[in-house]
Structure prediction request, 118 residues.
Amino acid sequence: VHLVESGGGLVQPGGSLRLSCATSGFTFSRYAMSWYRQAPGKEREFVAGFRSTGIMTTYADSVKGRFIIYRDNVKNMVYLQMNSVKPEDTAVYYCFALGLDDRTSNYWGQGTQVTVSS
Prediction:
C-alpha cells in the first residue's frame, strides 16, 4: 500500500496550491479519502474528507469555503485545492484512507509540507 503526497511548498498569503495524493495497493473506490494536517507543536487535525459514503464531502470550519477536496477514481488519486491560503494553514499535510467496508483498514501518507509566508 502506498499513499504519496505531492504539491506542497512555499506560497504567499492569499495564494493557491493544489496537493495531490497518489495511491496504490488497495481498492481506492472502497475507501473514504481525507486530508489532515499537523502544524509544529500541534496535534494532527482533520482538514477535508469524503464522508463514509465516499461521495459527500466535509470540511473543517477553518478551511470551509477556501479548500476543495476531490478524487479521481480512475487514476486512484485525491486532491486538495487550497485557495486564499493563510499563514495559519502552514503545516504538514497528510493523505488518509479509511476503508468503507472495514474501518480497521486505514492508511496514511508520509506528508507534504505547506508553508504560507510572504
